[in-house]
Amino acid sequence: MTRTVLVTGGAGGIGRAIATAFAKTGDDVVIADIDDVQDAAGSLGVRGVTMDITDDTSIGQALDQVGPVDVLVNNAGLLSVHGRLLELPASDMRQILHTNVYGTFLMIQQVARRMVGQGQPGVIVNLSSIGGRQPTPGMGGYESSKAAVDALTRWAAIELAEHGIRVNAVAPGPVLTPTLAAGMPEGSAARQAWVSRIPLRQLASVEDVAAAVMFLASGNAAHVTGTSLPVDGGQLLT
């Protein structure tokens, strides 16, 4: 059966890989992003919709265009703002939480309301991070937001189970996105520092993350809800 799969932040990086993986199975994929979404959608051969995940009205209008959603992948988030505890501006911390926590909450709430209203079971997969469980100096704002995403995942899972809606998260370690590759080229000291923390001695690919999302959205995970699945090459073991 063809499912409608909505991937937020789907225009690039991990979101693009997730959208590609679902599209290959024949699902009706819709990518949502705050801008430049139609070009990305066209190149992937999927539908695109403009959406600001931190704006209730924007989400509602976008969901009206999309129609009933069977699978929601909450991939959109803010990763680029960092700073140590004593130096991070309060306004930056507010922005991180507003996007990564409040935005994820709004997406879960709006999509789940529609699923419940239509008497429709469904699946929600959030993008978290192992940083929510393993701190890295200078990244605590982002990591705190992802710990909150894990808590949101459990909250939604326990309350939506009676409606047949499963809610899980995928928690990657460092992922070799185009942005990371540009900032930490092969052979650089910065990349080697990250790789040295990973028992499998390699960064995750975007396809590794997409595969975990696909699993949690599939019937093979029919009895899995409320979990946050690490995709980290064993980094949490160290």
UniProtKB/TrEMBL annotation:
Keyword Oxidoreductase: yes
Keywords for this protein: NAD, Oxidoreductase
Lineage top rank: taxon: Bacteria
Ketoreductase domain ranges (all copies): 3-173
SUPFAM superfamilies linked: NAD(P)-binding Rossmann-fold domains (SSF51735)
InterPro entries on file: KR_dom, NAD(P)-bd_dom_sf, SDR_fam
Assigned protein family: Belongs to the short-chain dehydrogenases/reductases (SDR) family.
Record's protein name: 2-hydroxycyclohexanecarboxyl-CoA dehydrogenase
